[in-house]
Amino acid sequence: MIYTKTSLAQKTTILKTAIEKAEALIIGAGAGLSAAAGLDYDDTATFNALFPGYHDRYGLKTISEAGFYQFSTPEEQYAYWMRHICAIRYNFPAGKPYLDLSRIIKDRNYVILTTNTDGQFFKSGFDPDKICFPQGDLSFFQCSKPCSDELYPNEQTVKEILSHIGNKEFAIPTGDIPRCPHCGNPLIPNIRASHSFVEKPWIEKYQMLNDFLDANRGKKMLFLELGVGFSAPGIIRHEFEFLFMMRKYAEMLRINLNIVEISLIHKEDRAAVIQGDIGRILSKLAEDY
Ligand SMILES: [Zn+2]
Question: Rounded to the nearest whole angstrom, what is the distance from the C-alpha of residue 85 to the centroid of ligand 1?
Answer without folding.
Answer: 20
